Amino acid sequence: MRGSFCACGEEFNEFGGNTPCVEIRVGDRLFIIDAGTGFPVFGREASSSVPQNVDLLLSHLHSDHIGGLLLCKHLLTKEGRTFNTYCGNLNGETAEAALNQLYSPPIFPVKMDCIPTKFNHTGFHAGENLVFDDGITVKTVPLKHPGGATGYRFDHEGRSICYLSDLEHSDHWPDQELVTFCQNTDLIIFDGMFCKNDYSGHEGWGHSTWSKGIELCRAANAASLALFHLNPCYDDQRLHEIERTMQKEMPEAFIARERHHVYLEPR
User: Fold this and answer.
1) What residues contact residue 87 under an 8 Å CB cut-off, 6+ apart?
2) How far apart are CA 158 and CA 153, in angstroms?
3) Which among 15, 34, 69, 171 has the fewest CB atoms less than 10 Å away?
4) What's the CATH number where 112 sits?
5) Full strand arrangement of the beta sheet holding 130-131
6) How many domains does the chain have?
7) Could you tell me the mean pLDDT of each successive run of 10 residues in the chain, 267 residues long?
């Protein structure tokens, strides 16, 4: 998945060009993390298997993480479906006001209250746990990003996944709070917007590099790394080069492709 804006053209076909949308299935429960332009792709392919109640966890509300909400008629035009949004970077406020602004003229011709799908909005402070009615708990952590962002951790049947998109590494890396958050996880989905050489000049943009992802994995004893939120200027050839270099340092690391599926067997 790309960061900031889409990548379009045949040179981006293998890794894909859409902005973030990740599906996490924990038992029978479906979580969607972020609703970038990959969200309509998910909607077309999975609409028949999507439950009536969907939990949409938002890392933050920058346009590349919510823009797909305007385009996904397969999920948003079904009567009786409910989307429960969770947002942790607004000092406890919900995403309702921001999404209502998105769904309003002159940005968009249809208002949110005209959509058949119902939305419930929950605000929280990143760092708090989200506890759901079936007993599933999702841990959260604040991330260093302009305006703030939220990372998520899912634990189920002895397996775990961490989602850390839109994260800028600290001067003293890896950050101990993140190390604790990611401890012994099976997979870290990590912001790999830049290579080390390209990162210079982009400090403060709220993004990181694949090498910092590997450092976090080693410190947290994480088993695998999926590089994510890819630079939209990196074509397939460049990403293959990055992946080969990255795997020399950590063979279990890889670059996530669009429609990439990872299944973790219960322990």
Assistant:
1) 58, 60, 61, 93, 94, 95, 121, 122, 123, 124, 150
2) 13
3) 171
4) 3.60.15.10
5) 130-131, 137-143, 149-156, 159-164, 187-191, 225-228, 253-255
6) 1
7) 83 88 90 91 72 92 91 74 94 95 87 86 98 93 97 96 95 94 98 88 90 97 96 94 96 93 88
**Whole-prediction pTM value?**
0.94
Helix H or strand E segment including 233? none
Give the single-character DSSP code of 114: G
4 part of a folded domain: no
Q: Quick one: pLDDT at residue 10?
A: 85
79-93 burial string, b = 16+ CB within 10 Å, else e?
A: eebebbbbbbbbeee
Torsion 83-89-95-99 (CA) sign: negative
Q: How far apart are CA 130 and CA 146, in angstroms?
A: 23
Tokens of 80: 């009786």
Strand, helix or coil for residue 245: helix
**Is residue 196 left, alpha or beta, with left meaning phi > 0 and alpha meaning psi from -120 to 50?**
alpha
Amino acid at 94: T
Q: Residue 256 gets which letter from DSSP?
A: P
CA dist 108 → 67, 99, 104, 155, 235 (Å): 11, 11, 5, 38, 31
- Kind of pairing, strands 225-228 and 187-191? parallel
Determine, yes or no, domain membership for 265.
no
In a domain, 161, yes or no: yes
In a domain, 5, yes or no: no
Residue 140 · residue 134 · CB < 8 Å: no
